[in-house]
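Blinded run. Sample ID left blank on purpose so nobody reads anything into the name before looking at the predicted structure. Input follows.
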Amino acid sequence: MSAPINGILPVLPTPFTAAGDVDLEAMVRLVDYACRSGVDGVVFPGFASEVEHLTGEERQALLERVVRTAGANMQVVAGASAETPAAVIAYGKGAHSLGVNWLMIQPPKSLGSGAAEVIDFLQEVTAQLPDARIILQNAPAPRGSDLSPETILKIAEAVPQIGYVKEETLPAGPAITAILKGKPQNLLGVIGGGGARYILDEYERGACAAMPAIEIAEEHVALDTAWRTGDRPAARDLYVRTLPLLTLQAIYRMRLTKHAMVRRGILENAVVRAPTPELDEFATADIDANLAELGIIDAVSA
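Blinded prediction complete.
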């Protein structure tokens, strides 16, 4: 699907078995949970999916399960970032074979922060993927290139298949304002990142969607709904209540996400492949206290 993007689209984690293999059936449960939560779409794979620790075959098998479970009415965005145009094209063709046309691509950091090299890279990709629509991911250093708004606008104007920018530089707010002010006609909007830690500022500036992790998808949907229906006090209340957990998520990343999904009864374990800080008893107690305050788990078990 390549319908317009709005609302909450969580980046799905990759579930693993206790032995460390990808768990396709657990991915079905994650997508089912996302659908029940009322999200507007899902994203896979992304940074929160431990994408750098998946083989191409694992990525495709998991994406196939995501698409099949999500169904025809759920927007699916496929991550297709890679170091070479050939690899991006291969991921894009794999997504297209499953009916997914929205591709999220972060330009390789090796290209630098200038527009010309990124434009050449993306034009080579789009020449081979004429049906693809692109979400240009602008991640902050050290992972990303920290492209300036001026550079983003030059790239978007030169590559008509770019429909959105996922802006994650810090601070993202001023960049979102600048991009929306100068956006070419093909650019439909800007999507917030940063785990939704700045979602109200992003929405206030005109961001059309957010792509957080999945651990509090229900709460993020409720926040988004409150915002769009004009109930700003309710949106702010949810934001303030969820922010402590999101600050911890910025540290523990997918390990926290999976722990929370175990607590929700969706996953059976919190196995990760990516090197992330371990959850010791103090960190676990802090996370569980936040989950209890949000009503996700019972306070007695926290």
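Unblinding after everyone has recorded impressions. Strands lie at 7-8, 41-44, 75-79, 102-105, 133-138, 162-167, 189-192, 209-210.
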